[in-house]
Structures are given as C-alpha cells and as structure tokens.
Amino acid sequence: MDLPGLIVFNKPYGVLSQFTPEGRWRGLKDFIDLPGVYVAGRLDADSEGLLLLTRDGKLQARIADPRFKMEKTYWVQVEGEPGEAALQSLRQGVQLNDGLSLPARASLMPEPPGLWPRDPPVRVRQSIPTGWIELAIREGRNRQVRRMTAAVGFPTLRLIRAAVGPYSLDGLGQGHWRKADASLAMVA
Fold this sequence. Notes:
This protein is α+β, with helices and mostly antiparallel strands. 16% of the residues lie in helices and 30% in strands.
C-alpha cells in the first residue's frame, strides 16, 4: 500500500484527535484506516475541522511545534454580534490566565457557505443573535480560541479549524480525508 506523506482530514464534532475512543468521544479509527499515521497537532473533541496526520516524525514536529508558528485559521461562531472594538482587541492580543496572547488576524465573516450541520446542533437562543469571526493565530495554547473570544465578551458556540498553514478544508466533506503535498509544510 502506498501510504500518503500527509493526510488532510475534516474532523467532525465529538471525535478525539487520537485513534482510540474514550468515554463518550469517538476516535479517528472510525474514519481513517491507515497504518502508521499520527496526528500533527490536535483539535479538541468539541471542535471541528482540519486535522493533519502524517507518518513522518520530522513533518509532524514541523506542523505541531509552536516554534515554527504555522498559522491556524478558525471560523468561530460566537454568542452576540462582535464589533470593531472586540476585533481590535483580538488583533492586539488579549490577556488570558496564562499570559497575553500573540496578536491575531481577526475579521467578521458571514456563516461559511455550504457549512455542514453539527451533530448535536449548536444551542440557539431566540433573544441573542450570533456572529461569525475568522480568527488566525500562530500559537497553540489549550482551548486558546475559545478563551480569546470569551475574553472579549463573545463566548464561542462553534469552532471550526479551516486551515493550517497552506492546508485547508476546501471541498472536503465532514468525516472525509484526502492526501496532501507534504512538501508545502516545509516552506510554510
């Protein structure tokens, strides 16, 4: 079998960034049946979107190690409608319990076109509108995006990683994977 050097996977909500399931969370083995591939970086079970996997240890380190600061882009559905002041705070870096975050790229965006439904659905409150932010960071602290949006007054309802460096979800259905060009990660 010709094993790919890099796999781009659209991880559904409720799936761990590991092959073995735990408790109520499913594992990657339900979606990817390839020997010898490992996750490069992680994505919480309650987050969705792009997850990269490889069989190359050096490539895995290049993607996951914060020293290389590979940019990660997220689509964030938040409670409320963020204004310019909240976006500017995200752009400057926000104070978190473990220190100041690095500046981020932040902008309002419409709901992503063709977005798959989440299972279970995001809770909806009739009296509180929601908005979408595109947020790009170069760090990888634990639950960082959720903590950043909460720090500026807009709690995260749904979190989708859309891109890591040169890799994106473009056209990839939820729960599906494809081969990717591993050499792009070395120049990102």
